[in-house]
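User: I'll paste a sequence; please echo it back and then give the predicted structure.

Assistant: Echoing your sequence first, then the prediction.
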Amino acid sequence: MRPRRGLSHQHVGSVRAYDPDTALLRARDLYTRRGDPLSLWVVRSDAVHTASPDERDPYFANARHKPYRYPQQFAPLTTERSPDGGHDD
C-alpha cells in the first residue's frame, strides 16, 4: 500500500484468495479502513524473492564493513539556511 505520492509502497499484510481480483478486493477491505491510500498492490507469495535468516551473514556482510553509508558517520549541520537560501546568523 502506498499512503500518498512521494512515498514507497509498504507491506501491510497478507490475504488468501483464489484469483488476483479477489485478492485485491480483500486487501482493500482489510487494509484501507483507515486513511485514504493512493494505491494498493497484491503479489503472489511465491513471486516474492527473499534472503532467508540463514543467508544473513554472507548476504549482508559487506554492508556492515561500510560505515560511511550510515547516517551516524556524518557530522550534524551547524548552521541552518533561511528559506531564501541565505544563512540564519
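Residues 65 and 85 are 36 Å apart (CA to CA). The chain has a mean pLDDT of 78.
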